[in-house]
Amino acid sequence: MTGTLYLIPVALGPAAPEWLHPPASQTLTHRLTHFVVENAKTARAEIKRMGHPAPVQTLSISELPKHAPDTALDALLAPAIAGHDIGLMSEAGCPAVADPGALLVRRAHELGIRVVPIVGPSSLLLSLMASGLNGQSFAFHGYLPVKDADRIIALRELEKESRKHQRTQIFIETPYRNLSMFNALTTVLAPDTRLCVAREVTTEGEWISTDTIARWRKREAPDLDRRPTVFLVLAEASRRT
Amino acid sequence: MTGTLYLIPVALGPAAPEWLHPPASQTLTHRLTHFVVENAKTARAEIKRMGHPAPVQTLSISELPKHAPDTALDALLAPAIAGHDIGLMSEAGCPAVADPGALLVRRAHELGIRVVPIVGPSSLLLSLMASGLNGQSFAFHGYLPVKDADRIIALRELEKESRKHQRTQIFIETPYRNLSMFNALTTVLAPDTRLCVAREVTTEGEWISTDTIARWRKREAPDLDRRPTVFLVLAEASRRT
Q: Torsion angle, CA of A54/A60/A66/A70, rounded to 10 degrees?
């Protein structure tokens, strides 16, 4: 019988596990002997930390290749074809969402391997919940362009689309560029557009605040430097100018 | 000291709680005495089921109004101003994402009340993880138009945008219209567009499958009638025609 591909979220940073994982997620991990992971070294440490009963060197832990042809994915999924369950884990958060793994999952569907997603922390979802912005319509855009001029164009376009569809626009930035992104947002966006800054969600440094651009301009800039942050923007439908 | 607004996910349907909630989510719920909920009757049952130590009639359980002016939201948040923590719960899944609650959260930010999102089940996020479609760029659109002609236009537009941005398009349908939506999707979309059908995620009836439209057309139609389902679509970048 074909095994199952389980998608197992991991912590977003240093945090108490009792806030992050349903008990069955841990029980499941303990009985798996095959893993596909983003980074083998940190995955071994994570699997140990989760209290896996087997010596970690006896487990099959394979890394996801960066650009995977079907043959490489098939090799990673071979244990499932042979009847073993496989756990897919990324470095942080939920596999295959703003993280690698989607191509492996897609190939699993093509091969008829059952895919089961496990509940766990997602910085995007938790930030959206806590933002107070529109959760009925939203889009995630990954990283925006880095160059100033291109970033300004991208932000104006996202704001325009947000206003038209009342859509919450979600994006992330390389942590050392967070302050530069924050400054661009408060400069470029309209005063009545709402911005949520969600920093280090689920960890000790968690800090989430939503305000209008007009009010952000008067507040002290938040401490985001080199700290993982999700940015969320919602433009007012009827712009008051 | 001002209380905190906790956003507490609940089950998506009949399911074993050990797969859904981190232990701290239950511990937290047990110490709360103030709740704002989508439906008071089902929330009382849920809070009892979670093993809340206090008799449920001694708890303050208020319903979210459908269209809430700030004064109504302020009344709901008054306990937090008075120093009590508040739990926000919707009928199923994560509050404020494809569910009511965002306006209350937004008002909490305006009043300087700390907002803390708790990890738990989200049908949208779990479906996206398990779809194998693009998790680096995606958008949730809620419900599409019901009328045939309007739905066809909306689907064509979503497919076009998906192809252009390699964006996964996510939407839901009223469960008794799921089969009609499935038929529209397999009729309207291009043969090489990928469709994921994610039914009753996290519950006993969970069934998740991704395939190209061409192959869906040859498969037996899935049993989606009156069963909560998330639809996800990704169009190939270079359409082969």
A: -140
